[in-house]
Amino acid sequence: MEGSFSKRIEKKTGVNFDEIMALANALTHANFADEKQVRKIVKKVSRLANKPITKELEDNIVNSIVQDGQSLDFTKIEKMMK
């Protein structure tokens, strides 16, 4: 059952299921007030999504997340990427 679920996720996203789980784990245990850690996560998400971002956009996303320091606001990040 788990194998078919992971295969469906991989097929739909184009991303290896283990990488998705590693990212989810990193997000779960992340300190969103730590700029270095947040920057690493932003770069990883960009790479996994195959959506390169400029240094300026990366800085804006990181600063936005670090300012709050508590959680990710995916809606805010999505708007920045458009």
Describe what you observe in this structure.
The protein has one domain. 73% of the residues lie in helices and 0% in strands. Helix 2 runs antiparallel to helix 3 and helix 3 (35-48) packs across helix 4. It is globular and about 40 Å long. By secondary structure, it is mainly alpha-helical. It contains five helices and no strands. It starts with a helix and ends with a helix. The longest helix is centred in the middle third of the chain and has 14 residues, at 35-48. The model has no long low-confidence stretch (mean pLDDT 83).
Mean pLDDT: 83
Number of strands: 0
List the helices and strands in order: HHHHH
Estimated radius of gyration: 14 Å
Inertia-based shape: globular
Total separate domains: 1
Task: List low-confidence stretches.
Answer: none
N-to-C span: 37 Å
| Percentage of β-strand residues | under 5%
Structural class: mainly alpha
- Summed up, the helix count is 5
Largest sheet: none
- What percentage of residues falls in helices of 4 or more residues? over 70%
